Amino acid sequence: MSDEPTDLSTEQPTPTRPRPSWQEPVVITLAIVLLTIVYYHGRPNTLPPEVDLFTWKDITFFLPTHYHQALFEALGLHDAHQQKLFNWFGVNFLLLFCIPALVIRLGLRRPLAEFGLQWGEGHVWGKYFLGFLLVTLPAVLLSSRWPSFQSYYSSHLWAGESLRAFLLFAGGWLVYFFAWEFFFRGFLLFGLARSMGKLAIFIQMVPFVMMHFRKPEMESYAAIIAGLALGFMAYRGKSWLGCWLLHWIIALLMYTVVIALA
Q1: Residue 100 and residue 33: Cα distance in Å, rounded?
Q2: Where are the alpha helices (DSSP H) in 42-146?
């Protein structure tokens, strides 16, 4: 037996893990492009007044503008601030869910279940769900009293004006976090885990944290832990559905406490 050290660079991938293919460059490149668009054009304060979910200037994508406005009116979203928030929900759903899902199905020709859109190992991720929730609740209750968090999360006080307003607010965030978790814990995580294994948990964590940079500084540091925890939870449970519900509950609780204290 040779005593020479093993050259790790010549080791072959494990039999159960395929070699990297063009899937990994596609996932990484598309993720960068979409997050760049979201950052510069998909935030409430960057959406110009003439942009809405269905129509951009003179170009109609889904529904004419007057139908879109009628939908807002029917939902009771009369204020421009409220409408811009729901436009933001829609734009992010389009960019972070619809486009990656189409690329997976039509470009990569793979089922969405391979990217975590399935029940998966519910008994596994369910345990992490309860554990992470119990750990996070005290942190939310504590940080919601800090001035930096109150300043940021008090921008939607209208959600506390009525039960209808709160349910609309909660429903919008539910849609938003569905797209958010699909993108990070689905498209990025499982798109790279196919050949990279657990290393993909750390890769998806990096842009996830960077998308928190406009929030209070402490939340960005917390996002490092959350990104790893949610990534591990999705990876072990073979599904990001628990991450979606957990992220939604935590965010909604933060808004609820801040609104109640305002």
Answers
A1: 11
A2: 65-75, 80-93, 99-102, 122-143
Half-sphere CA count of 102, side-chain side, radius 13 A: 7
Asked if 131 and 245 touch (Cβ cutoff 8 Å), the reply is: no
Question: How far is C-alpha 262 from the chain's CA centre?
Answer: 27
In a domain, 11, yes or no: no
* Helix 80-93 × helix 163-181 angle, to 10°: 30
Q: Which domain holds residue 44?
A: 21-261
- Does 7 reside within a domain? no
CA gap 168, 182 in Å, rounded: 21
Check if the beta carbon of residue 172 is closer than 8 Å to that of residue 85.
yes
Give the pLDDT of the chain (262 residues) as one tens digit per residue: 445 444 444 445 455 677 878 899 999 999 999 999 988 877 766 665 556 666 666 666 666 666 677 888 888 888 888 988 998 898 899 999 999 999 999 999 999 999 999 999 999 999 999 999 999 999 999 999 999 999 999 999 999 999 999 999 999 999 999 999 999 999 999 999 999 999 999 999 999 999 999 899 999 999 999 999 999 999 999 999 999 999 999 999 999 999 999 8
| Pairing of the two strands 59-60 and 55-56 | antiparallel
For residue 8, being part of any structural domain is answered with no
Structural domain total, the chain: 1
- For residue 239, the 8-state DSSP code is -
Residue linked to tokens 């890769």: 203
How long a stretch of residues is the chain? 262
Q: What one-character DSSP code corresponds to residue 6?
A: P
- Distance, in Å, from the CA atom of 139 to the CA atom of 46, rounded to the nearest integer, reads 30
Task: Let me know if residue 112 belongs to a domain.
Answer: yes
